[in-house]
Amino acid sequence: MVLARIDEVENRDLKRKRGYTEHVFVRRPWRQRGLAKALVVRSLRVLKERGMEEGELGVDSENESGAFGFYQRLGYETFSTDIWFRKPMDMNLSAT
């Protein structure tokens, strides 16, 4: 499964032509057959056919499936790193 998505409003507001590849997924029994690569390449072709000049996707750098290296081998480059915070929900929710 893969989703190729274009946010026309975002592209217009930011004066760019960027498309997104999202939700890349291959069921476990079908992995290691080149299907993920075929899905991503097809997604990029669809985006290019629709006038996009760059493709973007997000990945968890700690993903144990090797997705980070997989996307690098397809030519993707890291341009941003996000940090997420988590807080346990205890009963003491004071601001201090």
Describe the structure.
- By secondary structure, the protein is of the alpha+beta class.
- It has a single domain (about 5-75), classed as Gcn5-related N-acetyltransferase (GNAT) (Aminopeptidase, 3-Layer(aba) Sandwich), CATH 3.40.630.
- Helix content is about 30%, strand content about 10%.
- The chain has three helices and three strands.
- It is extended, with a radius of gyration of 17 Å.
- It starts with a strand and ends in a 23-residue tail after the last helix.
Give descriptors for this structure.
three-stranded mixed beta sheet; Aminopeptidase; about 100 residues; 3 strands; alpha+beta
Q: How is this fold's topology laid out?
A:
Blueprint: E1 3-6, H1 8-14, E2 18-22, H2 35-49, E3 54-56, H3 67-73
Parallel strand pairs: 2-3
Antiparallel strand pairs: 1-2
